[in-house]
Amino acid sequence: MVRNMARRTIENALGRLGFVHVAGVDEVGRGCLAGPVVAAAVVLDPSRHIAGLRDSKLLAAAGREALYETITLHALCWAVASVDPSEIDRLNIHRASLAAMRQAVLGLQPLPEVVIVDAFRIPDLALPQRGIIKGDRRSSAIAAASIVAKVSRDRQMDALHEADPRFGFNRHKGYATAEHLAAVARHGYSAVHRRTFRPPSLFDTIE
Hints:
- By secondary structure, the protein is an alpha/beta fold.
- The protein has helices at 9-16, 61-74, 85-91, 93-106, 135-138, 140-163, 169-172, 178-187; strands spanning 22-28, 37-43, 77-83, 114-118, 129-132.
- It is globular and about 55 Å long.
């Protein structure tokens, strides 16, 4: 048996209660210095098993890319939403993450019958929902959403790197690596950096 594989136990339990179309929701990019926070919502086809689904953090980049293609091809529906750095600064990262997740769910066509979310409940969402602790490791639908969100955000960060290669976004994806911190120390913050989240070592960085 393969370890760390997400299962359909939660989805199957909801199915026995009459909920057929279950949307899994997850986000990525909360802890970054730069770039958007991105959320995905995915409704998997109960009749079509996708092998290898697990938390995106447990997959190599090539594995995530392959599963992204399978998920987006075979899911009943899926949607991605992002909140940019200026809006993150306005709202704060927690509220921005919830806003991205809400937008992703509302982007599904048709809307799901129930929503399961990694760790949180989404406010102002007029659908039945349940927050699942460590949901990206327990639920196939949430794991699928984590993969779609991660690949979507990585592609956005690659595009930001093409526009401005000074920071190495294609390598660290906006996280506070030593390389990224050194680049910010040299160049200051760019337009895609979040002003409201700075490690202590950057308190004196010139913008």
